[in-house]
Amino acid sequence: MSAPNTRPSSPRVDAERGAPGAAAAQTADDRQHSDQRDQRDQRDQRDQRADVGVPPSPYAKSGQDLRPGVDRTARPAAHRSAERENRGVPASQPDTSSDATSDTTSHTGSDSSSDESTGSGSALAGAGASVVPTRRAPGEHPTGHTSDPHWDGPEDPPMIRRRRPRPRLGWRGLAYDWTLGKWNPGLSEKEQRIRERERQIARQLRGKHVTAFFCLKGGISKTSTTAATSIAMANLRPDPVFAIDANPDAGDLAERLVGRSEAGITGLSANVDRIGSLDDLSQYTVTAGRLTMLPGEPNPELGDSLSSMDFRRIMGVVQRYYNVVQVDCGTGVTHPLMRGILEFADTVVIPASWSITGAKRAADSISWLEQHGFEHLARTSIVVLTAKDIVSGSVNKDAVREHLSQAADLIVVPSDPHVADGALIDWEQLAPATREAYLDIAAAVTRRFPEGGWPV
Fold this sequence. Notes:
- The structure is a single chain.
- This protein is α/β, with parallel strands linked by helices.
- Among the domains are: 168-201, no CATH class; 206-446, Rossmann fold (3-Layer(aba) Sandwich), CATH 3.40.50.
- The protein has 18 helices and 8 strands.
- Helix 16 (397-403) links the parallel strand 7 (382-386) and strand 8.
- Residues 1-7, 59-75, 97-136 and 139-151 have low confidence and may be disordered.
- Residues 1-164 are annotated as: Disordered.
- This is AAA domain-containing protein.
């Protein structure tokens, strides 16, 4: 017969065997440990709040300290050292208290989980206080390594779908109108080129730009080219365009733009020191649509009295308010006014014709610029061949083009009775091919704007 089992019992064993009173003993033991943890947590909260300076959440319940990102089970090492000194434990002896063990466990656990997700942990209140990881730097993948230095996370999708541009020309424009926009066949290649040219003309100008319409020969549509090109630019550009009639020999730019003879440049020259506002300047200018111009001097004797210094003073006032300036020059290159104009010019447009003398004078104008210190203007010059004169079939137009090939751009303006009449230029009355040519001239001018602007 075997001996009875006399093994001493314990609360844990009794609880497993279901002995009477075991459950009560276990509950008392758990309550004691819970009270100890609560006291330690409250002490940790006070220590961390004093060290970090972060106030508790106003939404926390009584006795709680809900500060986001802080591991409330950990205590800073400085506070643990102070408690050891109060207990009389030497600094060299390792701390084996339950608090240190708990701190080590909680710190190791929180840091290890943080390191797995971010690659590094950070302490908010010194050693032992773990915080929520900081946001990843640009270029850092969630795994902690960077494979693409330009990677900065996924881009947000556009909130508005991109629509096809509305066609305005040909059957495509009619189809769009007939279907009330339900069918958009898109732009033709021709209309794409037109809109690209419009964007080029409207290109932003950073700084100032002066274009001089200049040639050694008169009577080859220099003034009409100045007027029509200025209208084309003013119609498409967001900033105002200003034209100046600087022809000392009774210039007629005002007649081509507003239909009447006006005087302005000599009056402005005499009172330039009194100009203190745009309103003061407008007393000497006229407008044609969105274009503003300073008329020339109808009296040749008064116009001949203008000097290069007068033009410099006039430009000093005009460029306070206008960045894009078009200047209609005279034919006298030896006139004192011409030196002042070319000093301000950034681009030169040289009108020419299909006649032999017209083509030769245009080429001579480029050579004159090269020989008198204006090589940059000659190198970027724009030659405009206007079919004004009726020439016979014996003129070799290919040879004329070759003769003017030294120009940077060569643009041909077709014959147009509205231009040849010499009266007021109405943009809508020009032939479509003529408008296209003047728009090409305006685009060529804006391509010479300084770098730094962009199409609008």
